[in-house]
Design goal:
GO terms for molecular function: uridine phosphorylase activity. The chain is α/β, with parallel strands linked by helices. The chain has 7 helices and 12 strands. Bound molecules: 1,4-anhydro-D-erythro-pent-1-enitol (R2B) and uracil.
Length: about 280
């Protein structure tokens, strides 16, 4: 290619010096919303004692479909909701890392989820990823064929993250399976969508089946995230907080304050990991 336009990031190899802008990146952190990822950038900046040049402020480097902040070796990017949104971003971020000549970056998803048999506020580090039918692969149509890519997460990273959990914290940090749904409502067996043509028993049977399979939480990105990073040979982990226990209800009815407080929990763990690794360098 003469030039490569990373369309959804509003960047390109001709218009930007990607090596200069991103060549020092070591950690790529993704999460659903622009606000959370801006907050994470500020949080990680404090944690790793990174100083911006005098007079500079953190700015959104992308300002198009996704928001992107850079704090020294850490990129913090919003991925939107669902498989196709994170899939497009992963293509462009993997290419960005390639163009910037970054070697061995570690990718994290810092997310939110619904718990299955775990209390709201629990942090789940995903050790396996499955879809709604319990398949451990990302099945996606490519030029008219359904292609399956194994959705595999780095087990040593899971253990390293788990070991950093602070036993003094007033919440649990657990490892477990994460189910990736294509939808928030019917796809996650909720009874409160615009449509619901199944019974409460159908829902509970399904959630129990997931639970018996080792699923601890449900979200909407883990399968493509695990599959695409694995396919690219990138170490990656998914750390999500749960907003509710789906065995007890469907509505996310916690206050904004509680939600904000809980959303920081995965960030704390990932920032601690980043800090530890940077110290060891
Ligand atoms: C968690 O939260 C979002 C849905 O509310 C989705 O992006 C996910 O994985
Ligand atoms: N995100 C999800 O995908 N599901 C939930 O139940 C909560 C957050």
């Amino acid at each position: 290619m003469g030039q490569d336009i990373l369309y959804h990031l509003a960047m390109g190899t001709e218009s930007h010096n990607l090596v200069e802008m991103f060549g020092d990146v070591k950690f790529v952190c993704m999460g659903g919303t622009p606000q959370r990822m801006e907050n994470f950038a500020h949080y990680v900046m404090k944690e790793i004692d990174f100083n911006l040049p005098i007079g500079a402020t953190l700015i959104d480097l992308s300002q198009y479909r996704y928001s992107m902040y850079k704090v020294g070796p850490v990129l913090s990017i919003s991925h939107g909701m669902g498989i196709s949104s994170i899939g497009i971003l992963l293509h462009e971020i993997i290419k960005l890392m390639f163009h910037a000549k970054v070697k061995n970056p570690i990718f994290f998803r810092i997310g939110t989820s619904g718990g299955v048999g775990v209390k709201g506020g629990t942090v789940v580090i995903s050790d396996t990823a499955c879809d709604e039918l319990l398949n451990n692969y990302y099945e996606t149509p490519i030029v008219g064929n359904l292609v399956k890519r194994p959705a595999i997460l780095d087990q040593s990273l899971v253990q390293e993250l788990k070991a950093l959990a602070d036993p003094e914290d007033p919440y649990d940090v657990v490892t477990g399976g994460t189910m990736c749904a294509n939808d928030f409502y019917e796809g996650q067996g909720r009874l409160d969508g615009a449509f619901c043509n199944y019974s409460e028993k159908d829902k509970m049977d399904y959630l129990k089946k997931l639970q018996n399979h080792g699923v601890k939480n449900i979200e909407m990105e883990v399968v493509p995230f695990a599959a695409m990073t694995h396919h690219a040979g990138i170490r990656a982990a998914v750390v999500c907080v749960t907003f509710l226990d789906r065995l007890k209800g469907d509505q996310v009815d916690i206050s904004k304050e509680v939600m904000n407080e809980w959303q920081v929990r995965p960030q704390k763990l990932v920032a601690k990991y980043i800090k530890k690794l940077l110290k060891a360098l």
